[in-house]
Write a structure and sequence with these properties.
Layout: E1 2-6, E2 12-17, E3 22-26, E4 32-33, E5 37-42, H1 47-55, E6 62-67, E7 72-77, E8 82-88, E9 94-96, E10 101-104, E11 108-114, H2 118-123, E12 129-135, E13 138-144, E14 147-152, E15 157-161, E16 165-169, E17 173-178, H3 182-187, E18 193-198, E19 201-206, H4 210-217
Antiparallel strand pairs: 1-2, 2-7, 3-6, 3-10, 4-7, 5-6, 8-13, 9-12, 9-16, 10-13, 11-12, 14-19, 15-18, 16-19, 17-18
């Protein structure tokens, strides 16, 4: 299997498959594909795993696309302006924001991951449930805005605006702390809480979130005036 990511800020990935090779996506994740690919839809792992994926922002059913001949290809497109991140699942586990999963090879496992600690879930910007990537093979994630990869040394901490932590290795410590100072809370523009990630391990930060992008569009949305 080989692949190409294209599209700049509205990206997609085309995965080239030889006979018998496959990838899977959430239901409706395929954008276009060649004629020699067979599609099979199921819960992939059973009802409980499917339910966990739903809670983490993906679909109950997953679609597996298998090449029935050589030289086949399938394209999956991002649903938001941003970038596609490629991960080797064997180097994980990786913890990802909700709805980050785009597609992966069959031996990659996608499941829900619950953050430890009530504060991180309530105020971290993504809720209690994230996505966890494990297994073997390549996984493709769709992230918002531009991506910055940072490799944190043991004990090194980084404070991030809530929601901008897109992916991190499971060994990274993820926590939330309250912004200090009355004036900072009222006028600093960062809200009450910041996310803290502590090494060792890699984190991937995104420059934009779907929530902030949607908020910017609201003033330009048409609305119907009351008669």
């Amino acid at each position: 299997m080989h692949y190409e990511v294209f599209g700049e800020n509205l990206p997609a990935v085309t995965v080239h498959l030889e006979n018998g090779e496959a990838i899977y996506t959430q239901s409706g994740g395929m954008t276009w594909m060649s004629a020699g690919i067979n599609m099979e839809t199921n819960m992939k792992g059973g009802f409980l795993k499917g339910l966990g994926r739903m809670i983490s922002g993906d679909s109950l059913f997953m679609a597996t696309y298998t090449a029935t001949g050589s030289g086949q290809y399938i394209t999956c497109a991002s649903t938001m302006p941003g970038n596609i991140l490629t991960l080797d699942a064997a180097q994980g586990p990786y913890i990802c924001q909700k709805s980050a999963f785009l597609c992966a090879q069959p031996d990659v496992t996608l499941e829900a991951y619950t953050l430890p600690g009530w504060k991180a879930g309530l105020f971290g910007g993504e809720g209690f449930v994230f996505q966890q990537i494990t297994g073997n093979g390549t996984a493709f994630l769709e992230l918002d805005g531009s991506i910055k990869e940072i490799d944190l040394a043991p004990g090194e901490k980084l404070k991030v605006d809530t929601g901008n932590v897109a992916v991190f290795e499971k060994r990274v410590t993820y926590s939330v702390e309250r912004v200090k100072g009355f004036a900072n809370i009222l006028f600093g523009g960062e809200g009450l809480f910041l996310t803290t990630v502590e090494g060792p391990g890699k984190v991937w930060l995104q420059t934009m979130t779907a929530h902030s992008f949607a908020a910017k569009l609201v003033p330009f949305m048409p609305f119907k005036k009351d008669d």
